[in-house]
Amino acid sequence: MTCSRRNFLAGAGAVIFTTGVGASNLVGRKSLAATMDDGVKRYGMVHDETLCIGCTACTDACREVNNVPEGVSRLEIVRSEPQGEYPNVDYQFTRISCQHCDNAPCVHVCPTGAAYKDDETGIVAVDNFKCVGCGYCLAACPYQVRFFHPETKSADKCDFCRETNLKEGKQPACVESCPTKALTFGDLNDPNSEISQMITQKPVYRQKVELGTQPKMYKVPHGKGEIKG
Length: 229
Fold this sequence. Notes:
Pfam families: Fer4_11. InterPro entries: 4Fe4S_Fe-S-bd (IPR017896), 4Fe4S_Fe_S_CS (IPR017900), Cyt_c_NO2Rdtase_NrfC (IPR017567), ET_IronSulfur_Cluster-Binding (IPR050954), TAT_signal (IPR006311). GO terms for molecular function: 4 iron, 4 sulfur cluster binding; metal ion binding. This protein is α+β, with helices and mostly antiparallel strands. It has 7 helices and 9 strands. Mean pLDDT is 84; it is low at 1-37 and 224-229. The termini are far apart. The protein has a single domain (43-220), classed as Alpha-Beta Plaits, CATH 3.30.70.
């Protein structure tokens, strides 16, 4: 590293945060790991809120596979207030995690290139060795899903298990652990992938699309026909 965290922060002034507009579960018989080197992919995920039961098995699996320390989390499942009246009370469970934006604000504001979008997979990742801990990416993320890793002291977040399960040809840990199959992961550039088919066949929404972030995290709304921003 050419500049230390201390030197960088001492000389840092102000930063302008911009959000400019611009720029599957199934992958044939190949493993996910194999596809990471043979063409441009755009990995995304669908969280089906109609199937999610809020068990947090996904959160636990993510923590174990990616060695996420206690006190921070790459993924959370948030439960809504009770909906309806007894005995017909229901809850909505929403996933809070990195949206892997095609037009990621965190990438735009990072002064060292530590925050970047992988050209081969579309996954937004963090290079721990380049991160100087300035916190610009945490402030710029409109979804507020980044945090400082207490051990590496660098920014951290969900990376679809890019350095763990994907390298081993597996699905992300959250997908593998979900008992109700509420999560679907795959290549959005492949029209025949399960995720692409799901997006065309079911009502889905993405959060804060009006900001031009172009998120690749889709959600099937809890209420049929429900429209959300």
